[in-house]
Amino acid sequence: EVQLVESGGGPVQAGGSLNLSCTVSGYIYSSYCFGWYRRQTPWKELEVVASIDSDGTTTYADSVKGRFTISQGNAKTTLSLQMNSLKPEDTAMYYCAADRLCGWLGVDGYWGQGTQVTVSS
To answer: Of residues 72 and 30, which shows the higher confidence score?
Structure first.
């Protein structure tokens, strides 16, 4: 059974930093894309903020480019998201996810329970 478990969220002041971690257990094909998506409110569309493809290619949403960095452990059992210069609009539930295609993250495949990030001004 595949499980993704996030940690590292919490309250932080604007301009601060957080590092989110995701532990992956169970078998996931090495060809899968991994990433982080967020949902700011339950009724708002999810936003994929960062992804890393099987060849190591990273992609970032324009809203976080230059501030967030995604990284993955060699065995692909850990995934991290370093978030710097946080803004109040970064407040959201953040989810770790994996799917065959990066464009499907959070829609299909696997995801965790999420970790809440709250940025105060």
So the answer is: 72
Please give the DSSP secondary-structure letter assigned to residue 81: E
Chain position carrying tokens 């499980």:
3
DSSP state of 45: P
* Rounded CA separation 49/90 (Å): 10
Output the six-digit token pair for 35: 């990433």
- Torsion angles phi and psi, residue 83, rounded to 5: -115, 115
Backbone angles phi, psi at 89, to 5 degrees: -75, -5
Instruction: Answer whether residue 29 shows pLDDT above 90.
Output: no
**Rounded Cα–Cα distance for residues 110 and 33 (Å):** 11
Assign 75 a pLDDT band (cuts: 50, 70, 90).
confident
Dist. CA 83–CA 15, nearest whole Å: 10
CA dist., res. 121 & res. 113, Å (int): 26
